[in-house]
Each structure stands twice: as structure tokens, then as C-alpha cells.
Amino acid sequence: MDVYVIGMAAHDSADRVMDKRLEEMVFDTARAALDDAGVARDELDHVTMAACDELDGRSISSMLLAAPAGAYLKDEMKCTDSGLTGFCLAAMRAGSGVFHLGLISSWNKSSVAPVEDVMRMRCDPFFTRPIGLNMSIADGLFAQGVSDAYGISEDDVNIAVLEGYRRAHRNPRGMQRPVPPAYEIAGSPHLAAPLRKGHQAPITDGAVSMVLASGEWVVEHPQCQPLARVAGIGWRNERYSLNRERLTSLEGFRNSFDDALNMAGLLDASELDVLELDSQTGYHELAFKAALGDYIPESVSPSGGTFAQNPYFCMGMTNAAEAILQVNGLAGAVQVQGARMAAAHGSHGFANQGNVAVVFEGA
After folding, report:
1. Burial class (CB in 10 A: 0-12, 13-18, 19+), 327
2. Is residue 342 part of a domain?
3. Looking at residue 112, what is its pLDDT?
4. How many CA atoms within 13 Å lie on the side-chain side of 212?
5. Which positions of the chain have pLDDT values less than 70?
6. CA distance 352 to 247
7. pLDDT at 59
8. What is the pLDDT of residues 29-65, one digit of tens each?
9. CA atoms within 13 A on the CB side of 66
10. Distance CA 271, CA 16 (A)
11. Which residues on adjacent β-strands are paired with residue 10?
């Protein structure tokens, strides 16, 4: 793709952002991304928002948040699947030849509307809602399925979670939580067997904004120094059903990456220097790695991924920001030396029903 990220910003991670309204979080992050790109809001020709009304805790939240997101009197679109899905929409608009300079903003103040309460209402009202299905139960079914399909033991998951916290503790942009002792993870209560509370990544508040420009715009503005080229994008949505085939095939995950890698001109994921996964539990990380088979990049989620920070709806955008920092050599204590190609993954829906992949190349 002839599309570039020329500026970005992420709000400071926090379990709960207590000193700002959601509108202020969004405004501050969008403003910082524009400043990072060195462009004024007046120069934008489109704005894309990626957010969820239910998780924002209000109906048609864009009526209040469009202006803070930079969309006042601008061509505006909203994506409600996930933050990284919104990024793909913004990238396609910048690559369309119709638009040339845009802003994508995504956010999630999870402390306002708890994710599990929202997910229960996402259930089918006649069959799955009455039995109490929620995100944890769906992830428990996923954990059961992939444990059998890929030979993942609970000890493997405990180790994966421990390693995730260790990487996350080094990440200056994350929560830098203390690394829990192994016995605490292994002894945490079951939520939906075999999934334990300690296997889940804690959910946080957060926001991410990025400025995207077409190749034509970059050529016409030689003073601009792009952070990364969007080399490839891909997304797939799987069936709503939570049967064994859907849970264990990871077809959507594989195909979204195949599409992104093919667009980027890469043979497989092993050609990536870094891969940032949206792994909401330790089972997810191990299953995603198993799905990649022998083609796992040398460095997977060096940032600590969701265990560093986990603004659920925009976690894919957080992964994108980490991937862009990697290809610029700016990831600090979690930098992978010589990284030039990095991919970000985002997921959404029950048991990662939807998957999105974006490949970034150092500009």
C-alpha cells in the first residue's frame, strides 16, 4: 500500500483514568498525534473513529466524541468492530486516491462500562443470553478446545502468562505491574475451566490516535518524515457459533495474516522481525503461536502485549503503536534490534470471532 503513518500518540495507560472525562482523553490523544505529525487539523480531509457505544457507556457516542476526535466539519466515518479494523478503514481511505491526509482515533474507557456487562448483552437474546454466556465463558470454551487441539497444558499457560508479565514489566508505556509469583497464577480461581482469573490480562483504560497520509501527500510534503509504511492489511470475521470447529481452527486468524503478509510481499510470518499479538489470555497466545506453526517470528509481543496494558476495544491500535515504535528503533527497553518489519494483531467478539492484521515497514 502507498500509505504512511506520519504521526501517532497513545494516552498514558491506567486502570482507571480518574482525572479526565472520556472526551478529554480522546481530545488530548488526537491533539498529540497531530502535533507528532506536524500538521494542523485544518489540513485533514477525513477522520475515522473506532469506538463502541456500549463500552463508551452512552448511545451514539460519536455525537459527543466526534469533535474531540478531530472530526468537526470533516468527512467522518465510524467503525464499531475494533480499533485496528478502524485503522484498516482509514488506510483504505488514504489509499483510495480520493483522500490524502486523515486521522484515526480509537479509545476505550473500560472503567465506565465494564466489558463483561457489555458482552453479556451481545449474546443472542433467545439462546445464549439466558444461560449467562459472557466473555470469560466463551474464552473458557476456547481454552478447552485449543488445549485438546494443540496439546496446550495448564502449566504451559501459566509459564506463558508469567513471561508476558516479565516482558510487560520492562515496557515503559505499560502499567509495569509487579510480576506475580507462579503459584499465584496457578492458584487463582477458575472462571470457566480451564481458564483461571490469573490467565486473563487485566483490562485498562486507553486511547490511540494516528495520522495517515497517502504516498502522493508524502511526496508533495518532502519535509514530512513518515514513521512507517502500511505494507499490508487483512481481516476476517468467523461464524458466531462457538462449536469446536470454529474455536479450534483459528481460520480467521490464519487468513487475516495470510492476506496482510501477501499484500506486504512476504512469504510467511517468519519474515517479520516483530509480531504484537492481541492475546486476551495465556491460552490465546499459545494457540496463536500454534496456528503459525513453524513460521513464528523471532520476537512475539516484546512489549508484553495485553499484560502491559489492555484497553480492550483499541488493543489492536496499541499493538500497532508498539509495532511502529519497533521499526523506528524507539521502543526503549523492549526494542528488538534491527527490526524493520513488524505486524500488529487485533481481535474482537466472542473467543476472537474477528481478527485483523496489519504489517508495518520502516519508512
Report:
1. buried
2. no
3. 87
4. 30
5. none
6. 9
7. 85
8. 999 999 999 999 999 999 999 999 999 988 889 999 9
9. 14
10. 38
11. 208
The answer to whether residue 303 is domain-embedded is no
Q: Looking at residue 58, what is its pLDDT?
A: 85
pLDDT tens digits for range 265-277: 999 999 999 999 9
Query: What backbone phi and psi angles, to 5 degrees, belong to 273?
Result: -85, -30
User: CATH number for the domain including 102?
Assistant: 3.40.47.10
Of 138, 122, 146, 359, residue with least CA distance to 262: 359
Amino acid at 80: T
Distance CA(340)–CA(326), nearest Å, equals 8
pLDDT on residue 131: 87
* Tally of domains within the chain: 1
Query: What pLDDT score does 128 carry?
Result: 87
CB 362 within 8 A of CB 336: no
